[in-house]
Amino acid sequence: MPSTAWLHSLYTYLTTKAWNTLRKQVLEEYNYQCAMERGSITQDVLAEHVMRVNGCSHQEFDEYYQKCREERMRREIDDTRGPVIWEQDWGEYASLLAQEGNLKQRYQWYNGYIVSVGSRKRLGKPRSQTD
After folding, report:
1. pLDDT at 115 (0 to 100)
2. Do 101 and 94 touch, CB atoms closer than 8 A?
3. What share of the chain is helix, strand, coil (3-state, %, to 5)?
4. Cα–Cα distance for residue pair 120/131, rounded to 1 Å
5. Tens digits of pLDDT across the chain (131 residues)
6. Bridge-partner residues for 14, per DSSP?
7. How far apart are CA 11 and CA 83, in angstroms?
8. 102: exposed, middle or buried (C-beta count within 10 Å: 0-12, 13-18, 19+)?
9. Do residues 99 and 21 touch, judged by C-beta distance below 8 A?
């Protein structure tokens, strides 16, 4: 996840009631087990897998991993204008965000954007250069 998208989560924008309703649905769907933990792996597990599949050494993995980290950073930073603003795709949850009363009071849903009330700052989609 690009660092410019950090803290742009459903939890940040939804009211407590809307968040708890969604949370309950997801917990029931996954039988009250953390879906993230089931899908996450440590760097050591990743290293073991890559070394086994590709027949490479730990040093080769470390070099490859570092190149990947550098590429990720390069993609996040545009040399001509600083950090790249990424578009947040809310996917199946866009309708939940758009529903009246689901956003915290300081936010509004406007034409596919989450707008901070009292500010021109749009959250969740890239800003144009005229903003």
Report:
1. 86
2. no
3. 50, 10, 40
4. 8
5. 566 666 778 999 999 999 999 999 988 987 887 655 556 678 888 888 889 888 999 999 999 999 988 877 777 666 666 666 667 788 889 999 999 999 999 999 988 888 888 755 555 554 444 44
6. 103
7. 24
8. buried
9. no
The answer to whether the CB of 60 falls within 8 A of the CB of 67 is no
Q: Match 């500010």 to its residue by tokens.
A: 119
Q: What CA–CA distance (Å, rounded) separates 78 from 63?
A: 24
Q: 3-state class of 40 per DSSP?
A: coil
Which tokens sit at 81? 């204008």
At 7, which amino acid appears?
A: L
**What pLDDT score was predicted for residue 88?**
79
H or E element in which residue 10 lies: helix 10-13
Residues 6+ apart with CB under 8 A from 3: 76, 83
pTM as predicted: 0.56
Whether 37 contacts 48, CB under 8 Å: no
